[in-house]
């Protein structure tokens, strides 16, 4: 594993700076899937105003440990009960808290998928059962095998859309997964961290059906879409039977006052949401067209803000390409670190037109030279 992947996440500009000898801020970061349009101006102005107050309470007073205002607003936004909402320090905390609440013996995951699902189980010594999905089947699970695995474990994590593939499950398949989970006492954690990037995500979110399935918990992130990775903010929605024990296991004040305020303001940023969807449709199309011109690679894209790319056989590996791109000031993910992917896979985010053009230029030059032209 390369040093860039030591923490299992993208966005590590500091390690990149140490490895490739340039200031951290001078890298183009395609390794983290953060919205390049954000944060919304309205949100930034609200944070600035709060910090400019005399003796600013967001700094001098403890945050609300129950995030009451944000919980109420999210409950109204999704038309669910407040008792069925929990706020967390990013989606990662909620992924961990659901495991703490369930205390499973066996945890089910798909390979490949977000690595935190498996990490949170293995650090507790729990058995992990994985369902591999294949590139030639567009990384979609076979329904019968998926249902068998859900019935056989205590907790199952399901990315919707899945990271790093960007694939979405059909609504029928997701409903059946939730039904099987409820029938067999399995808790189904549906991770919708990237669903905000999908057009009409309100209609696609499983939160709309959550009351029908008492053992399903939906995890949402506000970090990616609203570009708040430095604040960390996410939330979970589910039956109070599972939300309450998650809250009891949460450390006090895990969500700071600035993050709570950011979440409250973000819910009113409807124009920003529309602008983001327009940007993504335009830039995703551009990147797809450019990638098709690079010989020897294959890319998968869904409706989200990142691509999974497989490099040609007998060419340079993902780890080597990450090194060469880093030397050129461009950060990408070495996706071979995701269980189920071989050393040929990388993942790249979608960013602004100028940044996307630079990514494609460097990527094409390195790949077409077989790694000989590293800039």
TrEMBL record:
Coiled coil: none annotated. InterPro entries: Aminotransferase_I/II_large, CobD, NHTrfase_class1_PyrdxlP-BS, PyrdxlP-dep_Trfase, PyrdxlP-dep_Trfase_major, PyrdxlP-dep_Trfase_small. It catalyses: O-phospho-L-threonine + H(+) = (R)-1-aminopropan-2-yl phosphate + CO2. PROSITE patterns: AA_TRANSFER_CLASS_1 (PS00105). Its cofactor is pyridoxal 5'-phosphate. Pathway: Cofactor biosynthesis; adenosylcobalamin biosynthesis. One of its GO terms (molecular function) is pyridoxal phosphate binding. Transmembrane segments: none annotated. Its EC number is 4.1.1.81. It is an enzyme of class 4 (lyase). Residues 26-362 form the Aminotransferase class I/classII large domain. Keywords: Cobalamin biosynthesis, Lyase, Pyridoxal phosphate. GO terms for biological process: cobalamin biosynthetic process. It comes from the Bacteria. The keyword Lyase applies. PANTHER family: HISTIDINOL-PHOSPHATE AMINOTRANSFERASE-RELATED, THREONINE-PHOSPHATE DECARBOXYLASE. NCBIfam families: L_thr_O3P_dcar (TIGR01140). Decarboxylates L-threonine-O-3-phosphate to yield (R)-1-amino-2-propanol O-2-phosphate, the precursor for the linkage between the nucleotide loop and the corrin ring in cobalamin. This is threonine-phosphate decarboxylase. It comes from Kroppenstedtia pulmonis.
